[in-house]
Amino acid sequence: NKVIGPYAKTKAEATQAVLEAVEQGLNAVVVHPSGIIGPYDNGNNHIVKLAKDYISGKLLAGVIGGYDFVDVRDVAKGCIAAVDKGEVGECYILSNRFFTVKELLEYMQIASNGPKKICVPISLAKIMLPMIEWIAKIKNKRPLFTKYSLYTLESNGHFSHEKATKALAYHPREMRTTIADTIHYLQGRQVPLLA
User: Fold this and answer.
1) Shortest CA distance to 82 belongs to which of 30, 17, 19, 134?
2) Which of 58, 60, 152, 155 suits a disulfide with 53, CB 3.0-4.6 Å?
3) Cα-trace Rg, the chain
4) Which residues sit opposite 69 in a β-bridge?
5) Average of pLDDT values for 129-153?
6) Cβ-based neighbour number of residue 54 at 10 Å
7) Strand pairing category for 119-120 and 30-33
C-alpha cells in the first residue's frame, strides 16, 4: 500500500509471494533492480526512447529530475550471481547510482557527438503533458513522458547496492559506457552483449 502505481504494486506483491513461499521451503532469492536501461532495447523503455529521440533529432529538451539507473547487462549478471551466491530468502538491490536526466543527455552528446540539450522543470512538463499525450495518441506512439515517469523522476531514486556488492561481487559499469553502447546499438552498430 505504500508504493505508487500498478507496476510498483505488482512488484511488491510478487516479492511478498516469493518470500512467503520461501517460508514454506522454496529455494529462492529476490533481486530488486533499479531503473533498467541499456542496449538491445528498441525503444519501449523511457530512457532508451529518450536516447532514440535524441539521436533522431526529435528530442527538444529533457526534464530536471533523475533516478538510479542500471545497465541491463549488469542486472543479468547480478541475477546469475544471486542464483549462484545468494542466500535463500534474501533480497538484493541491483542498482548503480542516482543519475540526473541532464547527466544522461550529456553522455548521449558525448557518445553521438550531438547537440547539447536543455532540461526544463518537471512542473513545465506536467503542464505540457496533456498535449504530449494527445500528440502521441494521434501518432499511435507511446509518449516519452507520462504522469508516472515524471512522478518517478521526482521520487526517491537513491538506492544502495552495497549488500549485492558484498554478497554477490556485484559491480555495475560506468553509465557513460551504458549510454554509449545504447546509442551505438540504436545506430545499428555492434555492442558487447554481456561484457
Assistant:
1) 30
2) 58
3) 18
4) 35, 97
5) 84
6) 23
7) unpaired
Amino acid at 50: L
Query: What backbone torsions phi and psi does residue 115 show, to the nearest 5 degrees?
Result: -80, 155
Dihedral of the alpha carbons of 118, 187, 76, 65, in degrees to the nearest 10: 10
* pLDDT reading at 156 higher than 90: no
- Going through the chain in order, the beta strands assigned E by DSSP cover 30-33, 35-37, 62-63, 66-71, 91-94, 97-100, 119-120
Report pLDDT for 118: 94
Check whether 167 has a pLDDT greater than 70.
yes
Q: How far is Cα of residue 71 from the mean position of the Cα atoms in its chain?
A: 8
pLDDT at 80: 97
Evaluate whether 68 touches 98 at the Cβ level (below 8 Å).
Answer: yes
The single residue listed with the C-alpha cell 503542464 is 127
62, three cell numbers: 529533457
pLDDT at 159 over 90: yes
Q: How confident is the model at residue 69 (pLDDT cuts 50, 70, 90)?
A: very high
